[in-house]
Design goal:
By secondary structure, the chain is of the alpha+beta class. Helix content is 40%, strand content 18%. Helix 1 packs antiparallel against helix 2 and helix 2 packs antiparallel against helix 3.
């Protein structure tokens, strides 16, 4: 090849094009990363525990974000600005993780008390069991009770889904049935202060403590159906006796740990699904990035495919059958709610202690 060879000029132009393309890709990725971290840190400051008003925190967060954006756009020393921002972000991140949760706040009445559970031989006693009566979401009669249950009479568990209209994003609960003693329900929720309302965005930024409400079904399920107008599904779980006992004791341990040590709620990582997992194979699915772990409205389908829903029905038929609202005609029947929402119970396994498959041979359920 000689000087001026067209093939040489073409190769040089191709390399120059690739260098420009890589340069732009690098700066686009850097820009996306910068904007993401700036957005997160701004929200963290806006929702922080700075001892000033919320408006002042929002103004401060906006002012800092605007300053960094202006410096990036107009400064000729971009890398120095990025270095300064890295120090700022590290400071905000450190501060964020040092914000402590607390039990000592002015709580809303529905989360005003923490349950704790005592165990003596095979007898458990639940203190501060919630059993409110609701006329609406904001109009209710408070009732905190103490109840005892015999562990030997633990029979089965149901997986409860409460759909408020989003379909893929729902609330989930676990309800354990004790022979003669009825049902004991566990619900992981945000522990809101008296002036607070739930916010998905705020749930990422240490705005709510975590609470496990231990209560009666007439409260936890009745409130969802009658006061909130949600669609509730009651899926019977297929568990061995050993699995059932271990799962129940795990909930007891979590309730007692939370009573001793406050913990933050997180919209993504510490919520009703991730805290109340009844099938540990879900953890394996997390490693596989199964989208149904994040879209918890699809978790019953995931459990169904894993053989953990006690039914012979197809999944669409099971979902229709286990929808609880259709079996309740009037609010006045709420005292018998647990029985009314389970007309199919006679056709599902009589107890977890029997061998699988747990179905009556003549049943369509």
């Amino acid at each position: 090849m000689t000087k001026g060879d067209p093939s040489l000029d073409g190769q040089s132009a191709s390399r120059s094009l690739w260098r420009r393309l890589l340069w732009w890709i690098r700066y686009v990725l850097l820009g996306v990363c910068f904007l993401s971290l700036l957005g997160w840190s701004s929200l963290a400051v806006a929702f922080s525990n700075l001892p000033v008003g919320e408006t002042s925190r929002q103004f401060l967060a906006g002012a800092v974000a605007t300053t960094f954006l202006a410096l990036i756009v107009f400064s000729k020393r971009c890398w120095r600005v990025l270095g300064l921002f890295a120090l700022y972000f590290a400071s905000v991140l450190t501060w964020f993780f040092l914000i402590p949760p607390s039990h000592d706040r002015v709580w809303g009445p529905e989360v005003g008390k923490l349950s704790h559970i005592e165990i003596e031989d095979d007898l458990i006693t639940v203190h501060n069991l919630r059993n409110f009566e609701y006329s609406s979401v904001t109009d209710f009669t408070e009732r905190w009770e103490e109840r005892s249950y015999d562990l030997d009479k633990l029979q089965r568990m149901d997986y409860i889904i409460c759909d408020w209209g989003l379909g893929d994003i729902v609330h989930s609960m676990l309800s354990f049935e004790f022979e003669d003693d009825g049902y004991l329900c566990f619900s992981v929720e945000t522990r809101k202060e008296s002036h607070e309302s739930y916010s998905t965005i705020r749930g990422f930024f240490r705005q709510f403590e975590l609470i496990i409400v231990v209560g009666a079904e007439r409260d936890l399920i009745g409130q969802r159906i009658f006061a909130r107008g949600e669609d509730v599904y009651v899926y019977p779980a297929k568990l061995s006796k050993d699995e059932l006992d271990a799962l129940f004791m795990e909930q007891v341990q979590r309730v007692n740990q939370l009573a001793e040590n406050p913990k933050w709620y997180n919209t993504l990582t510490t919520n009703c699904l991730t805290t109340l997992v009844f099938d540990r194979s879900v953890d394996e699915r997390l490693m596989k990035i199964d989208h149904r772990v994040l879209l918890n409205g699809r978790s019953p389908e995931m459990y169904y495919e894993g053989g953990r829903i006690d039914t012979k029905l197809s999944y669409p038929d099971a979902k229709r059958t286990f929808q609880a609202n259709q079996y309740l005609q009037e609010v006045g029947a709420i005292e018998d709610l647990s029985q009314l929402i389970r007309p199919w119970r006679a056709f599902v396994s009589p107890s977890v202690s029997q061998s699988h498959p747990n179905h009556n041979a003549e049943s369509d359920y």
